[in-house]
Give the backbone structure.
Amino acid sequence: MHAGVHDSNACLARYLNAPQDPAAQAEALTVVSSGTWTVLMAPGAPTASLQAGLDMLGNVDVLGRATPTARFMGGREFAVLLEGATPDAGSLADLQQLIDSQTFAWPTFARQGGPFMDRDGWVQRGEQRLPGALAHWLNPGERSALAALYCAQLTAWLVQRLWQGDAPRARTLVVEGPLAHNPLYLSVLQALLPEHRCHASSDAMEGTARGAWLLSRWHAAGGPLFLSPVQACALRGLDVYHAQWMGEL
């Protein structure tokens, strides 16, 4: 007989039971489990950094240890910004166009949780807020790129809050779920978090299923993690753009 486990916690468990992998040996680990919710779990991060008003909380991992956690409804927000476009319709050129035209998405587009649940999100290009349907203003590639850019920015912002106050050290971040297959999201996230080594899970088995499977074999050698390193994108003006985005939070 085996006890059950919550999905995101199962996703984290696979990395706690893989000491032979470089990602598991890193001094600081953050796992981003994506889906309807994007859940960021940072075992070892300071609990003093948690802010209840930002929907940050102290979870408990399968080993009974406090695990600082942050979350937002990334899947729903991504879908709102796509507005019918396919997730992979965007390109680096579309990202650059968004930055050059000063097109921003500010939180939040799903009010069921997350750090800005009491706010209404909006998209702005230059000095103009874009009213009505985004499809009237942005082509499918731009909407896809904006969704990836927005979710990467919010993920990076939360990662930095989780580790705020922690001593500088080596850091590894692993993305699981649908966002692990979005190259624009991944490359922007790595560019915004240069102090982290970002990886994407390429496992054919979904992370929560793999973690639950490992729980019944906990004392055996952990299986391979199927991690792919992420390369940062080279986007002109991204740092300034991101600083402006954070200035409106």
About this structure: The two ends are 47 Å apart (CA to CA). DSSP finds eight helices and ten strands in the chain. Confidence is low (pLDDT under 50) at residues 20-26.
